[in-house]
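Q: What changes when cobalt (II) ion is included in the input?
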Amino acid sequence: MEKKWSKNTWRDYRIRQQPFYEDSVNLKIVESKINKLPPLIFAGEVRSLKEKLKKVAMGEAFLLQGGDCAESFSDFSANNLRDSFKVILQMSAVLTYASSLPVVKVGRIAGQFAKPRSDDFEEKNGLKLPSYRGDIINDINFDINSRKPDPKRMLDAYSQSAYSLNLIRAFASGGFADLEKVHNWNLDFVKKSTKNKYLDLANSITDALKFMKACGFNKENVPEFKQVDFFTSHEALLLNYEEALTREDSMKGGWYDCSAHMLWIGERTRNLDEAHVEFMRGIKNPIGVKIGPSVDEDYLIKLLEILNPLNEMGKITLITRMGSENIYSKLPLLIQKIRKNKNNVIWSCDPMHANTYKSSTGFKTRSFDKILSEIEAFFKVHQQEGSFAGGIHLELTGLDVTECVGGSQKIKEEDLSDRYHTHCDPRLNASQGLDLAFKLSDFLKVKRG
Ligand code: PEP
Ligand code: CO
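A: The predicted holo structure follows.
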């Protein structure tokens, strides 16, 4: 018999990576306040994302998911949000052309505030304090008060998500996402770069746009020329917050986590019989699952039975984050197992999280080349196995930060201190994001022939 689910049954299970709130009375007050606030997204939008993801699962669209590792309260501004949105649009234009497929755009945005950590404590100069767990939980400053989990932060995270969504929706349909404009930004980028291949590709897009215009397709008669669909996502880690935003759809029934369109379960919290899997199994949103190199194939099948018992297409995105070496030995077995068991999944590649290292200058960083080589391996393995490499999942920002080394700006370890602003993991900057999109176009072309 199927186990009963409700939005709070996760509370009966073992849970990892949660804060300890000393003030449980205040925690309850905040939860009930959020419970009464309007949903951030609407179930109909989630269904529309699911339809698009179904296409990805069938090999008829490509998923581009990206944004900050951790959004922060202090770095929030309209310009920063605009720039991150802009780089995703620019990358998407390149990938659409290269793959000849629609690109489903999902931001790690408007809710990506809670972070799992490898250690519960951080030690500096002999002082040991609780780790920073994201702005929705505590503050990054290294003092005892800042690091105390404060439930009120959930309300601030909700507000910032609402402001972000408001602006994103305006950008997406108010003229900012005009395809010609996006392409002109790409041309500006290409002009500054020395890569002839980028220029060739950009010129081909210019020609394609001219051709379509000549055929009578333009922004007056084709909505896709001036607006985009853009969806939000984050790791569903802080379940007190996720539960408070989980609502029953008044139109069609079913429970939706209305904090974002898509949610994912992290590598550290995806155990069967634990709280995060219990919570996620009951919601209708599309779900991502991060899969590291230690994953066991039989476990994966059990997890999919729990999260997607009806084997719905587009419901589950497996986001592999194996590392540029492990991926060759690990991914083929997983693909074979999933195929044998006939599970419908989207395969997406997170080339960031298993390629992190500490630079000689003391910064947590990632190398652009390693990131690219995990993506290349991901495409190669899928091609060998005859499966569809359906998406990429990136940590990136529209700002000109220096957090990852390499790319056409040739950022070196010595440069990292110039503009290292991340609240958690190192992000690709706008130029590195675009570099990646242009490089990726080679792999996508291979796939489409
Ligand atoms: C993340 O995406 O920021 C993250 C923590 O990933 P993972 O769960 O794969 O380590
Ligand atoms: Co991260």
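Observations recorded in class: The chain has a mean pLDDT of 96.
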